[in-house]
């Protein structure tokens, strides 16, 4: 809707309204930068391609898996016998076996 008096279009805004307009513009810029930052963080976290896991993990005879976890170049299986079996991600070979000491 056009103002009834064309001369009103050229009037300067009051200082408080100019300040408010600047704050709203600044807030908009900060929100856009924040969203772009969050998107960049999500992209960087999920674009990290690691070596794929093997289809089958072969455990030693008699071992039953209870928990699984992985790192950048290894994965580990915790067995029901209180052992941690650490495998190399690239080769699938057993790298290390750790025995969990019972609680005292």
Tell me about this structure.
This protein has one helix and four strands; from the N terminus they run αββββ. It has two domains: 37 residues; 52 residues. The protein has 104 residues and is of the alpha+beta class. 31% of the residues lie in helices and 23% in strands. Strands 1-2-3-4 form a four-stranded antiparallel sheet, with no helix packed on it. Strand 3 and strand 4 form a beta hairpin. The mean pLDDT is 86.
TL;DR?
With 104 residues, the protein is an alpha+beta fold.
Sheet/helix structural class: alpha+beta
Distance between the termini: 81 Å
Q: H/E series, N to C? A: HEEEE
Q: How are the strands of the largest sheet arranged? A: 1-2-3-4
How many domains in all?
2
Strand content: 15-25%
Q: Tell how many strands the DSSP assignment holds.
A: 4
Q: What Rg do the Cα atoms give? A: 31 Å
Q: Which regions contain 5 or more consecutive residues with pLDDT less than 50?
A: none
Biggest beta sheet attributes: 4 strands, antiparallel
- Helix amount, in percent? 25-40%
- Specify the overall morphology: rod-shaped
Write down the overall mean pLDDT.
Answer: 86
Transmembrane segments: 20-43
InterPro entries: DUF6476 (IPR045519)
Pfam families: DUF6476
Keywords: Membrane, Transmembrane, Transmembrane helix
């Amino acid at each position: 809707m056009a103002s009834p008096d064309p001369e009103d279009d050229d009037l300067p805004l009051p200082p408080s309204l100019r300040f408010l307009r600047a704050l709203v513009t600044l807030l908009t810029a900060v929100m856009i930068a924040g969203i772009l930052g969050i998107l960049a963080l999500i992209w960087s976290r999920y674009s990290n391609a690691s070596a794929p896991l093997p289809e089958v993990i072969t455990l030693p005879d008699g071992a039953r898996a209870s928990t699984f976890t992985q790192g950048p170049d290894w994965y580990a299986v915790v067995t029901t016998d209180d052992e941690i079996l650490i495998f190399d991600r690239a080769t699938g070979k057993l790298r290390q076996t750790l025995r969990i000491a019972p609680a005292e």
